[in-house]
Structure formats: structure tokens, C-alpha cells
Design goal:
single chain; alpha+beta; NADH Oxidase; five-stranded mixed beta sheet; four-stranded antiparallel beta sheet; 9 strands; about 20% strand
């Protein structure tokens, strides 16, 4: 799957948006999103799905805590539970979809538990081997954040620095690593806990989890790894992530 420069450019504009406008996403943009979903499913073995009548899963007592309103559009992040590193893959490819949507002028939000998951599973008609891990809301958003969005943004602030995330290094840092780390600093995470760090030792770049995050840390890892890859790509380093002896290595 070809990496798009627009995904990197979208990193600086991406924000979690929970209040949407009741507007139809154009057919052209819907087709672009669906095509990327198809490409991702082919490459990853996941079964991500585009939903055009998803507001029904964003209502009710539990969903009210997510405070998502005004959109029918969701992306269901689904995969075979036997797939190795399933949640990490969900995070990685889900964030590429988020950045594609951002590049199309749409707002998005990762949604972990604050939606009607049981109803959504029935709608999707999953196989016995598949799990719905989480969903992403998307749609048109007003230019300014709503009051509830501003309050949630303030409550979830957790600003980290370059040295907070690149916690091990033993040599001068090449430009592609710097660009990758700076992009990873802008990666979202569940509850904004940011439980991911990196090391660059003997010319080898690794990503790893530093603490648990209510079961979302592997998704957070995948999201951060996607941001790092795009940052390195922006610096002319066309690398890929590999899992070697349980370690996440970028080369």
C-alpha cells in the first residue's frame, strides 16, 4: 500500500472531534475512504468496515459518556482474534484512516467503549473468529470546537517533549528519527495517557509500551508507530515496521 504525503501533512491538523454537522460526506470522499479500507484489509488481513447509518450505535446511557453527536458515519475496526498483534494493527491502520479523513477535511474521533458495542456487533454480522475492537466516528465538523469539546480537551491535556518519548539514545540522532519522534508526539492515545516510548541504540529504532492503559495500550502503540513512520517518510526515509523477537523495529 502506497504511503501518501497528505497523511503526514494531516498530522498537524488532526484533532479529536465529537460534535458533527448533519451533512452528507460526498460520494467522491466516501469512495476514497472505502478504497483505502479495501487496501488496508488486503494488506493487513483485517476486516475494517465503513458504516453509513451508525448514529444508532451512538445513543443510549453508555454512549452518552462518549458525547458523540451529529454523525451517521463510523468505521468499524474488526479483525480475527487469532491475528498476531491484532490491536497494534488496528491502531496502526486505523490511524492511517483517521489521517486520510483529516486530509479530506473531515473530523474524526477514536471511540473505545462509549458506544453500543453489542448492537454494532449484531449489525456487522461478524464471523465467530472476529472481534470488534473499537470504532472511529467521522464527518463534517464546525470550524470551532463546541464547549463540551473544549472542556474535554482541557481535561485530557498531557504534553510530552522529545526527550520524554525518545527515552534511550546513544549517538547523534539522524533527521529521519527526529522527524519520526516529532510526529509521534502528536499521536492520540486512549485517555491521552501516551504510554509509548522509543529507543535509538546502535542505529536501531524501537517502539515499546511503557505502562498499561486500561487495555488500550497496544492500540496506542500502533497509532504512535503510524505517526513515526509518516514522520520518517517526510524526511525521505521509506522504512517499515517489523516485529522481531517480540520487539517493534523500524528499518
Amino acid at each position: 500500500m502506497k504511503v501518501k504525503r497528505e497523511w503526514y501533512d494531516a498530522i498537524k491538523f488532526r484533532q479529536s472531534r465529537r460534535t458533527y454537522e448533519k451533512k452528507i460526506i460526498s460520494k467522491g470522499n466516501r469512495l476514497k475512504i472505502i478504497q483505502l479500507i479495501d487496501d488496508i484489509n488486503t494488506e493487513s488481513g483485517l476486516n475494517l468496515q465503513f458504516i453509513e447509518d451508525g448514529e444508532q450505535f451512538l445513543t443510549g446511557f453508555k454512549a452518552s459518556y462518549g458525547m458523540i453527536s451529529g454523525t451517521d458515519y463510523l468505521i468499524a475496526l474488526v479483525g480475527n482474534r487469532n491475528l498476531k498483534n491484532l490491536k497494534k494493527l488496528i491502531g496502526y491502520y486505523g490511524e492511517l484512516l483517521v489521517l486520510e479523513c483529516t486530509s479530506l477535511g473531515l473530523g474524526t474521533c477514536w471511540i473505545g467503549g462509549t458506544y453500543d458495542k453489542a448492537k454494532c456487533i449484531k449489525y456487522l454480522n461478524l464471523s465467530k473468529e472476529e472481534d470488534l475492537i473499537c470504532v472511529i466516528s467521522l464527518g463534517h465538523v464546525p470550524n470551532d470546537k463546541s464547549l463540551k469539546e473544549k472542556v474535554l480537551s482541557r481535561l485530557s491535556q498531557n504534553i510530552k517533549t522529545f526527550d520524554d518519548i525518545l527515552i534511550e539514545k546513544d549517538s547523534s540522532i539522524p533527521r529521519w528519527v527526529r522527524c519520526g519522534i516529532n510526529s509521534a508526539l502528536l499521536a492520540p492515545s486512549a485517555l491521552n495517557k501516551k504510554p509509548i516510548a522509543y529507543s535509538f541504540i546502535n542505529g536501531t529504532l524501537k517502539a515499546f509500551i511503557t505502562k498499561s492503559n486500561k487495555g488500550y495500550e497496544d492500540i496506542d502503540l500502533g497509532i504512535s508507530m503510524a505517526h513515526f513512520m509518516l514522520g520518517a517518510f517526510s524526511a525521505g526515509y521509506d522504512g517499515k515496521w517489523s516485529s522481531i523477537n517480540g520487539e517493534n523495529i523500524f528499518s
